[in-house]
Amino acid sequence: MEGDKMKADIKNRLNRIEGQIRGIHRMIDNDEGCTDVLVQIAAVRSAINKVGGLILENYTKDCIKGSICNQEGMNSIDELIEVVLKFMK
Fold first, then answer.
1. How many domains does the chain have?
2. Which domain CATH number covers 12?
3. CB pairs under 8 A, 24+ apart, for 56-60?
4. CB–CB of 59/6 below 8 Å?
5. Which PANTHER family match (predicted)?
6. Of 69 and 85, the one with more pLDDT
7. Is the pTM of this model over 0.85?
């Protein structure tokens, strides 16, 4: 995905996530059922994971790929592993 297009996609997704969070606030204020709130929280978690996945994909394709081509491969692979492990926490 091109840089500007990817940025726009990520920002769009983050705006929707913000809307979902505001919706959860309203649900809490309106004393909606725990099940409904938990479903919305799961949706937010999934959306955040998708954004993280897109950023990780871009990082891998652009940054790591360039480093491997420049003979910095092992350091880049170690860095990628570190980033993936942090992302998965």
1. 1
2. 1.20.58.1000
3. 56/83, 56/84, 56/87, 58/1, 58/6, 59/83
4. no
5. COPPER-SENSING TRANSCRIPTIONAL REPRESSOR RICR (PTHR33677:SF3), TRANSCRIPTIONAL REPRESSOR FRMR-RELATED (PTHR33677)
6. 85
7. no
3-class SS shares of the chain: helix, strand, coil, % to 5 = 90, 0, 10
Q: How many angstroms separate the CA atoms of 67 and 69, rounded?
A: 5
The pLDDT, as a whole number, for residue 27 is 97
Q: Whole-angstrom Cα distance, residue 24 to residue 38?
A: 9
DSSP letter assigned to residue 30: T
Are 56 and 84 spatial neighbours (Cβ–Cβ below 8 Å)? Answer: yes
- Which are the contacts of 9, defined by CB distance < 8 A and separation ≥ 6? 1, 54
> Which residue is associated with the tokens 């809307």?
19
Residue span of the structural domain in which 48 resides = 3-88
